[in-house]
Amino acid sequence: MFGRLTLIGIGLIGGSIARVARRDGLAGEIVVSTRRQETLDRAAELGLGDRYTTDMAAAVEGADCVIVSVPVGASEAVAQAIGPHLKPGAIVSDVGSVKADVVRQMAPHLPAHAHFVPAHPVAGTEHSGPDAGFAELFHNRWCILTPPPGTDPAAVEHLAAFWRATGSKVETMTPEHHDMVLAITSHIPHLIAYNIVGTAAHLEQVTASEVIKFSAGGFRDFTRIAASDPTMWRDVFLHNKEAVIEMLGRFIEDLFALQRAVRFSDGDALFELFTKTRAIRRGIIDVGQDTAAPDFGRASAGGPAEILAKG
Amino acid sequence: MFGRLTLIGIGLIGGSIARVARRDGLAGEIVVSTRRQETLDRAAELGLGDRYTTDMAAAVEGADCVIVSVPVGASEAVAQAIGPHLKPGAIVSDVGSVKADVVRQMAPHLPAHAHFVPAHPVAGTEHSGPDAGFAELFHNRWCILTPPPGTDPAAVEHLAAFWRATGSKVETMTPEHHDMVLAITSHIPHLIAYNIVGTAAHLEQVTASEVIKFSAGGFRDFTRIAASDPTMWRDVFLHNKEAVIEMLGRFIEDLFALQRAVRFSDGDALFELFTKTRAIRRGIIDVGQDTAAPDFGRASAGGPAEILAKG
Ligand SMILES: NC(=O)c1ccc[n+]([C@@H]2O[C@H](COP(=O)([O-])OP(=O)(O)OC[C@H]3O[C@@H](n4cnc5c(N)ncnc54)[C@H](OP(=O)(O)O)[C@@H]3O)[C@@H](O)[C@H]2O)c1
Ligand SMILES: NC(=O)c1ccc[n+]([C@@H]2O[C@H](COP(=O)([O-])OP(=O)(O)OC[C@H]3O[C@@H](n4cnc5c(N)ncnc54)[C@H](OP(=O)(O)O)[C@@H]3O)[C@@H](O)[C@H]2O)c1
Questions:
Q1: Is B232 in the pocket of ligand 2 (CB under 6 A)?
Q2: What is the pLDDT of residues A117-173, one digit of tens each?
Q3: CATH class of B177-306
Q4: For the sheet containing B65-68, what is the strand order?
Q5: Quick one: which of B87, B149, B170, B284 has the most CB atoms within 10 Å?
Q6: Which residue from A141, A196, A290 is facing B188, i.e. has the nearest CB?
Q7: Which residues form the Prephenate/arogenate dehydrogenase domain (chains A, B) (predicted)?
Q8: Is it true that domain B2-173 has CATH number 3.40.50.410?
Q9: In chain A, where does the domain assigned CATH 3.40.50.720 lie?
Q10: B182: Cβ below 6 Å to ligand 2?
């Protein structure tokens, strides 16, 4: 698929790309680069690449494809470091959860002779670091490409083929539309999960120990989401501010209507909303983005935990 | 544990009590009663009891313990129907997710010669009906008892022993405190899950099909919660209005502070909140109310789905 693939950043996402590329022979050679020596050493122990260096400029020399998998706030510095060292025809991509701002950060620093094809694999877990990655992460998930107008179609297709080879389905849209879609499907869910866990931690009437003990009633699921990496998520909210604030406005408006229905005991309004939301759930199960099995906090042997342990 | 156990309502909770009582011999005889003949027939097919009747009054005759597992809004009618037929010394309990209001509904209709010990097993899934129940549901979960002042301690201990025999841990508190604890750990999480799924379904900028396709970014988990039974949840909000509105006020206040941090790019405030919330998550894993395994929508064979299939 690619002769030399360079991965900048080797956490959950970079580490998962490395594993699937290795397992399925998607690259002749995998070069791994990351900021800290400690993380690089761990990647080497896990055998994620063929060569390892903290020198990003050296890492991209001769690469056919470079995929940057770092928190979105670090995108510009990485682009600056690697831009001058990209070979003609190299494809440069990223995996950031935000797209318009990442394009603004990276594009100015990339040479005209490289092809910039921003991407976002819509797949993840609440864990991070090189140990958290696994080859199956992208299987049956969507990867969204947001190539700027005028990008070489062959380069876009080349990267799309790579993502399809990881098991992903590929869709193309504008960075702005991506940011709006992800604001509602990912960023706002994380924001409200972080928020309710924060609220619960600071109540006078209910102790933190009670919140923990009785979390099986629903709260528990929010804490899993709210255990996601603070750096990654800080950067998402700082760099997708407009779309997040717009969608949050909608959420709050609807929440006030719901609060009013509770206050005035409008059982019909509650019942109608609670019935409608089931259709969306069915849609998600029908397209295979979740299973109908109930999750009640007891992952069994053979599940994702095992996959993780196998690395 | 009990000579004759009568279950009024045989859905997820009643059906799970029936299965664990049968499996572990917690009752000499299990009498099953429910509103609709159709549900009763299904319970009989599943072999959940020893006798079956839609006549609730007849069902409770001679029962040592009666457990009512119906939507909380139906509690008063059930208490009215069964009250005159309870034998002296019978223990009457329920499993409602709301306690103060259920006590208000049921207590006036129960005879002085019966012992009323309200209960709430804090365990569940998003599924409902007799097929959804399983014997392991209560294992390692908390069951909260809220006996009115003056209740016979022996009756409370008898019911507590029954719940411990199902695998539950038992705690006692006032109905009012229960309702506050559950508002934050269960009712508000459900309310905001229903709300965001509703918001997502009505956007102009993002289609429902996009919401479904790209749900793996976090939204998916909310849809699971928002697929819970509409009748049960309508009743919870109608009957725990005060505590829900109080906790929702706190949630909204905190959400506005968070919105402000996003608007003014206060990365430190975001990072601080996102770091703190991890401590609560660790607490939940430490006490065994969830596992650290990442959930990414791929329940594997041998997991809860299998348990369910086995009934
Ligand atoms: N997690 C998800 O669910 C998910 C899903 C889709 C997309 N994404 C996107 O994928 C990207 C990476 O996320 P991840 O989950 O893989 O994160 P991760 O597991 O925390 O790994 C982050 C990687 O980026 C490096 N890094 C961190 N800060 C850096 C900086 N200031 N400059 C240079 N490198 C830095 C880290 O290097 P050192 O360890 O060497 O410091 C590490 O290799 C993010 O842009 C995120 O938005 C995440
Ligand atoms: N689901 C959870 O996660 C969970 C957890 C803890 C506690 N609870 C509480 O447990 C109780 C039952 O919930 P569930 O999940 O077991 O519900 P479910 O699966 O929907 O079963 C409800 C049962 O109640 C009966 N019922 C419904 N409406 C009734 C009415 N108006 N009058 C008399 N009977 C009626 C149904 O009878 P027919 O089918 O014959 O109509 C059925 O047997 C609720 O109070 C809920 O708050 C639920």
A1: yes
A2: 999 999 999 999 999 999 999 999 999 999 999 999 999 999 999 999 999 999 999
A3: mainly alpha
A4: B51-53, B27-33, B2-8, B65-68, B91-94, B115-116
A5: B284
A6: A196
A7: 3-292
A8: no
A9: 2-173
A10: no
